[in-house]
Design brief:
heterodimer; A: 114 residues; mainly beta; five-stranded antiparallel beta sheet; B: mainly beta; four-stranded antiparallel beta sheet
Chain lengths: 114, 116
Amino acid sequence: DQQVKQNSPSLSVQEGRISILNCDYTNSMFDYFLWYKKYPAEGPTFLISISSIKDKNEDGRFTVFLNKSAKHLSLHIVPSQPGDSAVYFCAATTPYNYGQNFVFGPGTRLSVLP
Amino acid sequence: KAGVTQTPRYLIKTRGQQVTLSCSPISGHRSVSWYQQTPGQGLQFLFEYFSETQRNKGNFPGRFSGRQFSNSRSEMNVSTLELGDSALYLCASSLSSSFSGANVLTFGAGSRLTVL
């Protein structure tokens, strides 16, 4: 039973356009969410995070939106660049976990076409 | 500042063997977590260590074990390897002693295990 779902295994976007990656979760106790980006042969790198007390967090070209009632978050990349082509993982955690225990989604492979 | 270092990067084993993977966290990071990545499954949490103690454990069989040393370096061991254990094993370190929003995981490049 996947608690964090990324229903689009892949996404192709034209360079300069907006990329929207979606993530749904089932555990209402999750209160902190992160996005990671992974290139081949490298470990995932942290991109952006959002706490459940917010509905939006922005960092340069990256914005994450959180809709708690729908248990849905999305990552917007504007404008998309070819270097953004990677696998994006959504991750979530609960406040009651002592220590670091993140639940990751299966990932979405983003291809930004020149 | 050196990142998270995992060794070996690639290894091939046969069914029934055992394997030990090593992880050196970022200097000053005391929390080390291990994740298994397989196609379509994302990253599955194995366990997390802090100050040589296992604080969290995922839903993996007892064949998967780990430990952390006093210098925060960590090892994970998989005994009696099965074909399904073929995966990328990722180690991540964190500064935090307890969860807070500012302390994210920093991952190593992973150890790719192939079981034949």
